[in-house]
Amino acid sequence: MHFAQIATVGFSGDGRALELIDQTQLPGKLQVLQLKTQQEIWEAIHQLRVRGAPAIGIAAAIGLYLAALEIETEDQKSFLQQFSQRKAYLASARPTAVNLFWALDRMERVAQSHIRLPVDQIRDLLRQEAQRMLEEDAASCRRIGEYGSDLLREGDGVLTHCNAGRLATVRYGTALAPIYVAQEQGKQVRVFADETRPLLQGARLTAFELYQSGIDTTLLCDNMAATAMKNGWIQLVLVGADRIAANGDTANKIGTLGVAILARHYGIPFYVCAPLTTVDLNTPTGEEIQIEQRSPEEVTTLWYRERMAPEGVKVLNPAFDVTDHSFIAGIITDRGIARPPFSQTLPALFSQEGI
Ligand code: MRU
Hints:
Layout: E1 9-11, E2 18-21, E3 32-35, H1 38-46, H2 53-70, H3 76-91, H4 98-113, H5 119-149, E4 157-160, H6 177-184, E5 190-194, H7 201-212, E6 216-220, H8 225-230, E7 236-239, E8 243-245, E9 250-253, H9 256-265, E10 270-273, E11 279-280, H10 297-300, E12 320-323, E13 330-333, E14 336-338, H11 342-351
Helix pairs in contact: 1-2, 2-3, 2-4, 2-5, 3-4, 4-5, 5-6
Bound molecules: 5-S-methyl-1-O-phosphono-5-thio-D-ribulose (MRU).
The site of 5-S-methyl-1-O-phosphono-5-thio-D-ribulose has 19 residues, from helix 2 and strand 9.
């Protein structure tokens, strides 16, 4: 099957497994996995077989529904107890993207608020909730695309970092959604994709999905972004987010902060694209965001034929950094574009009625 026809993440045909594209195999191999056990799902999130904040949330929601199928008791109290244990286990897969916790909490609330129903009915409500979240994510990303495409002019060069495309969400992506919508509108934009060391989400995933969609895409090593900006090739920066604090400070893939600083230097607007499910009003500032630290081998060895650093050398491998809100021109959400001061404009988006 062609990439365009395969969902990044979703239910298997019989509804009894989590189905996802194994992103560790891209771009060389397009492999779809069907996962059933909690260990398999935890491993897939931890190892980035499924990655990107919204996609992780959906995978976890489906995973927790599958956990509900596994729990054998029909006693509601015991069901809820075992369900919460499995929720805690899935929540331990990665610490930074708030969508993981948001999705698991939402599933738990469904179980808690229907605890008087027969367990089979609770299971069915959990399935419906995960399905609703999947559909909502696609709709949110579409709206981000529509708001964001208004910022794009014919011929613009857009720099992006990591992968915040359809491989990071159910459909469209966040940072790439404006580009897909612009393409639908017949607007030509050129995308410059940072390769994104050390895990190469830009090279392996962003370049892959944009190229598959026929979008004019140029791959850059991360250290070439300054040159691209200095040469006047970049008119706008669009990046995704893993967690946005109440003041607008934004955790995203390591290297995003450097891009924001460069953009400020060259007077290029820097926008974050994210659904409100990535905005965490309970986290006051970026200081409180836990940054995932990953294994040194991802830096020294993973993509090389042989080790490329001396044995025993100290290695830093934080998976994310926090861009200070002062570098961000706007946050393109599914409810419109928040502008500074974010501590006022972000809460206002949550309180909009009926959207
Ligand atoms: O470690 P990853 O690949 O999960 O990191 C992903 C990112 O940093 C994305 O930019 C972010 O999750 C936004 S995805 C729409």
